[in-house]
């Protein structure tokens, strides 16, 4: 599911960057597209690593519950 969401968001980013780059002067459009795609890729990677670290952070405090629940059941 996450992979599908990433693919859809990537396609959405490409469309948006393409449309917005057309507003730039003709000689700057290629540079705007290149920089926009580069920034989108870097932000996607940074946010993905941050999400993983947040998941790891919140997983640790609740890990003691799994042993407790197994003992009850």
Automatic annotation (TrEMBL):
The keyword Membrane applies. The chain crosses the membrane at residues 37-58. InterPro entries: Integral_membrane_TerC. GO terms for cellular component: membrane. Keywords: Membrane, Transmembrane, Transmembrane helix. It comes from the Bacteria. This is Uncharacterized protein.
């Amino acid at each position: 599911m996450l992979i599908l969401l990433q693919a859809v968001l990537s396609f959405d980013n490409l469309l948006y960057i393409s449309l917005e780059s057309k507003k730039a002067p003709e000689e700057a459009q290629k540079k705007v597209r290149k920089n926009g795609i580069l920034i989108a890729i870097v932000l996607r990677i940074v946010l993905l690593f941050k999400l993983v670290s947040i998941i790891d952070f919140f997983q640790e405090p609740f890990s003691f519950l799994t042993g407790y629940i197994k003992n009850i059941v």
